Amino acid sequence: MMDILETSIQNVFFYAIVLGLAATAGLFSERAGIVNIGIEGTMAMGALGYAAVGKSFGETETPYLQFVLLIGAVIGGLLFSLIHGFATIILKSEHTISGVALNILAVGVASVFCSKEVLGDAQQLVSFNVQELSLAPTGFKNIISLKLFIFIGIMVLAFVMLKYSKWGLRFKAVGENPQAVDVAGINVYSYKWQGIVISGILAGLAGGIFVQSTRGFNGSVSGLGFLALAIMIMGHWNVLYVFICSFIFSIFYYMAVLAKDAPAFKTFSEGFFKKDLTNYGALFGMVPFVFTLISLVAFSKLSPGPAAAGVNYDKSKR
């Protein structure tokens, strides 16, 4: 029973960190007035950057190399997010269409880099051997890791900066009333680009941390980017609420992941529910997505989001 509980808590923390970072990436983008549903694709490019750098080190397993791999993830996510910034800020294209295009482009890029022709094998997996920097590879001690400190540091910094700093107040004002901000002599475009850059960095980090768990990238981040958007909405675009919601969604998502592994799900259900629920695995697999739909219906009207999110800013119309 303790082994099951230990593994469950470890995985809940892992998915909460990935979802929390990805949701915060979306939060920064929308607080600057740019709707970004391309978080999924940006995470995938961060994961690809992480895995590609890891693969370049060959058989090296030194955990401290994770710092270098995370830089690769940040660069991958950042470069990809700049495409969205160019489309929405410079070209003033429709934000949702640009985000969908990014997700489709990410699938194409990932398919190329994970193809048999590029990798030279039939696995279609960009694999690497760099170990995670943590107290232990599994169990409770795995929670105390580089990813946890990164997550806590980013969430605390984001909360303080957005709530208490002059920069944060201006940043949020850009997403609410950019014309008023411009009249005050503040460069609206600068803050929008800052939102894009921060969003790309955080989404890239989320993708890199996700792919570390499998030590390989197969072209997908399993829809976590879309769940992150639901967390952002349910969290009312507030860093503290996003932090809490990321753990709630993580519990449901882990149940879905577990449901795909029949032996593991059998052990889990017998340990927690004292009954073999393997036959109901498909229902448990639906839980996070049903919960997402319910939460969106329940909270979308209660949290309308930044007033100017998705509206292209035109300086001449102030």
UniProtKB/TrEMBL annotation:
Query: What is the protein's major site of localization?
Result: membrane
The subcellular location is:
Cell membrane
Q: Provide the alphabetized UniProt keywords.
A: Cell membrane, Membrane, Transmembrane, Transmembrane helix
Q: In its UniProt entry, what is this protein called?
A: ABC transporter permease
Matching PANTHER family, A to Z? GUANOSINE ABC TRANSPORTER PERMEASE PROTEIN NUPQ, SUGAR ABC TRANSPORTER INTEGRAL MEMBRANE PROTEIN-RELATED
Q: Name one GO molecular function term.
A: transmembrane transporter activity
Q: How does it sit in the membrane?
A: Multi-pass membrane protein
Report the domain of life of the source organism: Bacteria
Q: Which InterPro entries match?
A: ABC_transp_permease
> What species is given as this protein's source?
Mycoplasmopsis caviae
**GO (cellular component) term, any one:** plasma membrane
Transmembrane stretches in the record are: 12-28, 34-53, 65-91, 144-162, 191-210, 240-259, 280-299
Pfam families for this protein: BPD_transp_2 (PF02653)
